[in-house]
Specification:
Number of domains: 6
Helix content: 40-55%
Number of strands: 27
Catalytic activity: ATP + protein L-histidine = ADP + protein N-phospho-L-histidine
Distance between the termini: 40 Å
Modified residues (4-aspartylphosphate): 71
GO molecular function, one term: phosphorelay sensor kinase activity
Keywords: Kinase, Phosphoprotein, Transferase, Two-component regulatory system
Domain Response regulatory: 18-136
CATH topology of the largest domain: Rossmann fold
Length: 712
């Protein structure tokens, strides 16, 4: 819980904090000021109801504010506008959004804009304790940052070279000792990648070995780095990950002897961790035996290092290995030349795998010292290619009779073939279309961008995107395209399977308009109604601490009923606005999880239904609450959850629902209790409708109410 996470400091350890609170509701502003100053004696709240005046006060810096707490939904300037204005003048000043508008979209936008924290208003004073904690934490972080600046000054004057690297390995800071070590000016060091200081190809090898160690805590060792003048400098390095993901790179000079020993050890470790199989063979020994294999080789083949070393690589060959590929490898070794080929090999357990082998000689003083071989397991690709060839006839039939529009084109967009469905939809013959470019038919396409898109498409991996097509008569329609690259007789072709999504786009447009109306409605309910309600609840809670009256309980019940009404209205709005995530849900476990106190639940089913878990929970909670609130009158009611042949039922032993009311019981506003909101069963009906279920109400076995849901 937030209140457990945000633990405040003791008052004796806290320095004074000045907070500027911005909210267009004067009564709520006064409540927040009183509550915060009651929670923390060292916090002083300055209130502004006009956001423009508040921004001017910050710019005047009179008084000096340590934190700004701001509502989101205000006239003239909203909370994000205030945030932007404050950041223009004081980039480090903490800004906390404290608002009744709890939309995930608003929260995401606020976080993207750089808000310090985001907190929803609540109905009780515990929210102000949480707000006080958030203010203290935010101010403390800023003050700690100022202290860190002093630490940076100490780093600047350190005798060891110190660099701060971003998570991409680029130098973001270098102290004065770095300029002396590398011979560069500071401006020349900033922006350079740390691997650039390693000779030849050492940089990548060091990254592959050092970075994983650093992520585990710290990596230390010796390196040989290249200065600006080309000379090598031997250093002892330490690489440490900071909490923000950056890297601290500390360097001090070491002897040449220590550098050489470290370099040899590092290269061997890097090869061991390479993501492909690596083999070294010695042509000076009889039969060119293996003298080294890395870990990936043992993973691919199933042979241990001891089982492979001393043998010729042919031990991986078997009955189905292509002799032509083997002869190609043998000829390249005899001629001391590099070669790449693909052949079928066998693992230790006898299973086949396709091996892409690359062999190259390593020269030393003009003669071949060793051969290095790189081995990739390409079995998945070979399996796919074989499957594709075996299904050519089926693909051709699918092409011609597919209900989708199908186009085959080259990488330059030139159409090679179309199916009959494409011709019928666009009003062309196949002769009209073949030879055109694909973007001739798509008024929304950009040829240069499309070429780049196709060029980067991974082979045999479908890619989905949306576009449009233009018919011969000039009318257009939106499309959904599934594009895949295939290699046919050595030529790269693209197959586009196209579907008309006009109806889908119309439904999406209608849904957007509907959601916008719902958003406006929920904004009014959550802000314009809930804000004054929260003020009343907060003031009532403070009043209960100061005096005692029989009227206070009546006021509390009335406010709770208003809060229930607002909550039900928001549920009704969101049930039509939120996307459903349908998954198998166990009725028994969900019912027990949301069962209220004060009654008895009997579960007579282990059924699992496909439903949106949150909405189904809302349905059950409303039915359970309805049963408890409309009980038998003696306070003792039993609710049974059971299974029917077409779905499930919820039945109680309460007063039941008169037969004359059963046709109207699901309408908004129906209630027989002065405590009810009139929306509970309407929410049940809407949740059922959203799932495509039928709901019927009847008399229960013992005279109570029975709700049956047909879910198939």
């Amino acid at each position: 819980m937030d209140s457990l996470r945000d633990t405040p400091r003791s008052l004796s350890e806290s320095s004074p904090i000045d907070v500027l609170h911005v909210d267009d509701d004067p009564e709520f502003s006064a409540l927040v000021a009183a509550a915060l100053e009651r929670e923390r004696e060292h916090i002083t709240v300055h209130t502004e109801t006009d956001p423009r005046v508040a921004v001017d006060r910050v710019r005047r810096d009179d008084p000096t504010f340590d934190c700004v707490v701001c509502d989101y939904d205000m006239p003239d300037l909203d909370g994000l506008d205030v945030l932007a204005s404050v950041r223009d003048e004081y980039p480090e000043l903490p800004v906390i959004l404290f608002t009744a508008n709890g939309s995930e979209e608003v929260a995401s936008e606020a976080i993207s804009a750089g808000v310090t924290d985001y907190l929803r208003k609540g109905d009780d004073t515990s929210r102000y304790q949480l707000l006080a904690n958030r203010v203290e934490n935010a101010v403390e972080r800023v003050r700690a940052s100022r202290d860190s600046d002093r630490g940076l000054a100490a780093i600047e004057n350190a005798t060891d070279a110190v660099c701060i690297l971003g998570d991409d390995g680029v130098i973001e800071y270098a102290n004065a000792a770095c300029t002396e070590l590398f011979g560069y000016e500071r401006a020349e060091l900033l922006g350079r990648h740390w691997e650039a200081f390693y000779p030849d190809d050492d940089g990548q090898a060091v990254s592959d070995s050092v970075l994983p160690e650093a992520r585990e805590g710290q990596s230390s060792g010796q390196s040989s780095l290249v200065r600006k003048d080309g000379d090598l400098v031997d250093v002892e390095h330490t690489l440490t990950y900071a909490a923000d993901g950056s890297l601290i790179w500390t360097l001090s000079r070491v002897s040449k002897r220590d550098r050489l020993e470290t370099k040899l050890s590092r290269r061997e470790r890097a090869i061991d961790e390479a993501p492909i199989g690596v083999v070294l063979t010695d042509p000076d020994q009889a039969d060119n035996p293996i003298v080294y294999v890395n870990d990936e080789f043992t993973d691919i083949t199933g042979y241990s290092r001891d089982e492979a070393v001393g043998r010729n690589c042919r031990f991986l060959q078997g009955e189905e290995t292509d002799e032509a590929a083997v002869a190609e490898l043998r000829a390249a070794v005899d001629e001391r030349e590099p070669v790449t080929t693909e052949l079928l090999n066998y693992r230790k357990d006898g299973t086949e795998f396709w091996n892409r082998v690359r062999i190259a000689p390593i020269f030393d003083g003009g003669s071949v010292d060793l051969f290095v071989g790189f081995q990739d397991d390409i079995t998945p690709r070979k399996t796919y290619e074989r499957l594709l060839r075996s299904n050519t006839a089926r693909l051709e039939a699918l092409f011609e009779h597919s209900p989708d529009l199908v186009v085959v084109h080259k990488a330059d967009g030139t159409i090679q073939d179309v199916n009959q469905r494409m011709c019928e939809e666009l009003g062309y013959t196949d002769a009209d279309l073949v030879g055109k470019t694909i973007w001739d038919l798509d008024p929304t396409s950009e040829p240069d961008r499309s070429k780049s898109f196709w060029a980067d498409l991974p082979a045999n991996e479908p890619r989905r995107f949306e576009g449009a097509l233009e018919r011969r008569d000039g009318t257009t329609f939106p499309t959904e395209v599934h594009l895949i690259e295939l290699s046919v007789d050595g030529e790269d072709l693209f197959v586009a399977m196209i579907r008309d999504i006009s109806e889908q786009k119309e439904r999406e447009a209608e849904l957007v308009e509907q959601n916008e109306r719902l958003d406006r409605f929920t904004s009014v309910v959550s802000h314009d109604l809930r804000n004054p309600l929260q003020v009343a609840m907060g003031r009532l809670e403070m009043l209960q601490d100061d005096c005692d009256s029989d009227h206070l309980d009546d006021i509390d019940r009335a406010l709770d009923r208003m809060d229930d009404l607002i909550s039900d209205l928001l549920i009704l709005a969101h049930n039509g606005n939120d996307a459903m995530e349908v998954e198998p849900v166990g009725l028994a476990d969900l019912a027990r999880a949301c069962w209220p106190d004060g009654a008895t639940l009997t579960v007579e089913t282990d059924a699992v239904v496909d439903a949106d878990r949150d909405q189904l929970q809302q349905l059950l909670e409303n039915l359970f609450r309805n049963s408890v609130e409309h009980g038998s009158g003696d306070g003792d009611v039993t609710v049974t959850l059971g299974e029917t042949d077409r779905g499930f039922f919820v039945e109680d032993t309460g007063q039941g629902i008169p037969e004359s009311d059963r046709d109207t019981v699901f309408e908004a506003g129906y209630t027989t209790s002065s405590e009810g909101t009139g929306f509970g069963l309407n929410i049940v009906s809407q949740v059922a409708a959203a799932h495509g279920w039928e709901v019927r109400v009847s008399e229960g076995t013992d005279g109570g109410a029975r709700f049956e849901f047909r879910v198939d």
